Amino acid sequence: MKKILIGLAAAMAVSASVPAMAQDKTKACFIYVGSKTDGGWSQAHDIARQKVQADLGDKVETSFVESVPEGPDAQRTLERLARSGCKIIFATSFGFMDQTVAVAQKFPDVKFEHATGYKSAPNLATYNSRFYEGRYIQGVIAAKMSKKGEAGYIASFPIPEVVMGINSFLLGAQSVNPDFKLKVVWANTWFDAAKEADAAKVLIDQGVDIITQHTDSTGPMQVAAERGILAFGQASDMIKAGPKTQLTAIVDTWAPYYEKRIGAVADGSWKSESIWDGLKDGILTMAPYTNMPDDVKKLAEETEAKIKSGELKPFTGPIKKQDGSEWLKAGESSDDATLLGMNFYVAGVDDKLPQ
Amino acid sequence: MGLAESILLTIATAATPLLIAALGELVVERSGVLNLGVEGMMVIGAVCGFAGAALSGSPWIGVLCGVLAGALFSLLFGVLTITVATNQVATGLSLTLLGLGLSGLIGESFVGSPGLRLPNLYVPGLTDIPLVGRLLFGQDPIFYISILLLIGVSWFLFRTRTGLTLRAIGDSHASAHALGIEVVAYRYAAVLFGGACAGLAGAHLSLVYTPQWVENMTAGRGWIALALVVFASWRPMRILFGAYLFGAVSIGQLHAQALGVGIPSQFLSALPYLATVVVLVIISRNRRLTMMNTPASLGQPFVPER
């Protein structure tokens, strides 16, 4: 019994480690929706936290709470962190939005940063990453590498972020092969390795020879490796799960942003902003382009460079919606508000968008 | 490999862990103990299975580790509910929570490391038979173990004296005790068997289904197994049917989506749960038979008078 209790205590200690604070340091705190070793989203945030700690050394003290459910628990956790002396708190999941807004109101002296949300306040900033830029490059690669001219897309939930990714991937592919087709399967989960693997098996059985995912586990990569087809990683570099399979991955690199913002709190220059950064700002990077011939690699790198320089914007017309109506005229680029509320497919998606 | 064959293989892989975990829980519940910790035992089996395989280099040793870890973990439940007579529902729920946390702790260093897959059976000649070869002679070993378990559990419960005794304990532990039956020993054995099965089901996930360790990788499959036992009205063959029906609808809805039928994906995702519950409720609609199969002292703590 004793051993069990010790085990229990150990498990709890790991899930909430808030070390004692020192006065001269800026205390930066993070809450994660998943565990810090989820292999994807939350892990990317924790890697960034570790890098901040390593780079800023004595000037900063970081702490984190992982596996915080969205809802009332998040609010309690945020309040506890705010009381414990955190000067800046990063809430790293979309679902923490309303709780972060509420706690920010109660603690006007603490700075809050909410990832991927859209509600801000004088002491609450939002930050997001243009993941769709990476997906456009993936589409370009897929169209070059697929023999069948068709890719499979494992999607999570029909929210604008995911729909934007699907459209961007297909637009990238169509820039190479205008007839490129995309099969979409909704797993209705962010993280269920076995279910994602099932979705991958189904797509491969139906004939696609490249799969990409907007779910967080390495399950699909594993299946792709087993069946000998190609795939793209998500949120973290998944090359370990498919050394001969992964073409590239969109890697979330939050560290530079975190360092900038923590530095701003330290020197008093912090202001509430709404940041939506992309490849050029280094908030997302592409994992090495692997398992592809040199000409495809070169094209991918060129595409990446063009997006970084601003020469290429993925959502630039002429683009038709799925129903055939015109969305963007030739040369016209979409504004951010439309992208952030995107609820329609572009022409060529072989799926009906769940509403 | 044809499409139909491939679909059937995918269904079998999806159904196997549910079948194994549910058969284990069936034996536990037939002895009158309700262990809601299936999810926790399963995830412990998954992480220990993966760790055992990664450390030893042999997926079979991994399977063994998964089974033993599941059984060991269920022993904790046994000590608390059978010896100390704590509330079974509360204890089972805490077992799940503890299992999920503990497995994350154990598995921390294994996240992202490449997994070992238990190789599929290969019988020269037989496996290559068109259409049925891969299905009958070319699946993973745990699939065959699940079928043997099904036969074994059915035979044990309804064709042996020990099985009859076990069911008698589940129906009335007081009467069984009065007859001089070792209620406690039987229940410990049943709980350990349930734990071992859940551990094996977990090992299937981390060594066959998706050979890797990711936190919380059972993703609710333990709860589905638990529900299957109830909706199958504690009958092994109905559990087989329920597990494969669930697997078939899960895979079928994904195929329907990929083919682009115009049904909302949220509905399709809910379909496996709906279909399984509805069908099993319909086949179990004979109330008298269901009552007969329900262990009457299920979930009640047994405190013998001394």
**Can you tell me the number of structural domains of chain B?**
1
Number of helices of chain B: 13
Q: Please give the CATH architecture of the largest domain in chain A.
A: 3-Layer(aba) Sandwich
Mean pLDDT of chain A: 89
Shape of chain B: globular
Measured distance between first and last alpha carbons of chain A: 51 Å
> What is the count of distinct domains of chain A?
2
Structural class of chain B: mainly alpha
Encode the helix/strand succession of chain B as letters: HHHHHHHHHHHHH
Task: Please report the distance between the alpha carbons of the first and last residues of chain B.
Answer: 64 Å
Low-confidence stretches of chain B: none
Query: Biggest interface, which chains?
Result: A-B, 51 and 46 residues
What integer is the average pLDDT of chain B? 92
Name of the CATH superfamily of the largest domain in chain A = Response regulator
